[in-house]
Amino acid sequence: MSEPVLLSFHDSLLHESDGELLQGPHWLNDTLLQFHLDYLRHVTLPDADLGYVGPDVTQFARLCPESDLAEFLAPLSLQRCRGALFVINDCERPDAAGGTHWSLLVCAGGKRFIHYDSLAGGNQGVAKLLARRLATVLKCSAKVEQATCGRQQNGHDCGLYVVEHAEAVARRLAEGSEDLLTVRVTPERVQQRRGEMLRLIHALAAEGRAKGADVGSSGK
Known about the structure:
Blueprint: E1 5-9, E2 12-15, H1 16-21, H2 30-44, E3 50-53, H3 55-63, H4 66-73, E4 83-89, E5 102-108, E6 112-116, H5 124-138, E7 144-146, H6 158-175, H7 187-211
Parallel strand pairs: 3-4, 6-7
Antiparallel strand pairs: 1-2, 4-5, 5-6
């Protein structure tokens, strides 16, 4: 029997088990991270001219044959964006979920890559490999700068730090700020975000039920 759907929002389809991940000390999955990017794109910063590349697409971009990369990314028109955000996982399988750590790689203004990693050095090698591949498509330097950013205090909050880093950086890019190398995020803020995300998902789901339609379905 299929699992009940909690929320359909643009490119995100959340089930009840996804919401349960936010109720305790659990690792965020790719569905929740994609939801956050969709919310940034369509609600928080709808006119920011940013590219949001979710976990699934980023994973394929990192592991697909390099000869296929430019054609695969072409529909996203990332070269025309003022910035592009990539959610990175260290999983080495292109066809399955997995991995042990999330981080965020940002291409700012088509000029530089900045890596936001809540576990210092945890995904550094993965980020450098992805930047090298993307540089040929985005026509920018493959050098990766390591940001000073929030540091997780446990083994399960890396996805929430990606959520916090992504929103902070997206807002700065939207404002045209070049102050991108330092993003302060505290463990207390991360725990607040966990509850905020859950309440937001339930609020959007209630809105969708009241309207008798999936939230954001017209934006697909």
